[in-house]
Every structure is written in structure tokens, then in C-alpha cells.
Amino acid sequence: MTCDRLVCANCAGPVSEGRCPVCRAHRERVHRESPLGGLSPATLFTLVLALLAVAFLAQRVAVA
What we know:
- Keywords: Membrane, Transmembrane, Transmembrane helix.
- The chain crosses the membrane at residues 39-58.
- The protein is rod-shaped.
- It is built from 2 helices and no strands.
- The protein has helices spanning 21-33, 41-63.
């Protein structure tokens, strides 16, 4: 999970900006709990494509 689209209930600002102590605390908690929290969607998409390519190649080698 990323905090890009989360809105703080305390200050009504984006959590990613960390305007108040509540925002900053939640942002730190999200990044600490999620090992992939710091990765962008583009990076995750690239990793999935690479995994699919490896799986496809492994299948082709196993059949041959």
C-alpha cells in the first residue's frame, strides 16, 4: 500500500505530504509495514513482467 491517495482525517491533507504529526506517523507506519511500499506502480509492473518472462522461459526449457 502506498500513501499517495490517502487523505488525513486530522488535517484533510494528503498523507504523502506529512503536514501534521498524524500524517507523518501514518506515513512512517505504512512504509515500515509494507516491504513493497516504497516501490512505484511502474516498478511493480516491471517486476511482474520479468517474473512472467522467466516463467515462460522455464516452461519452454522444460518442454524441450
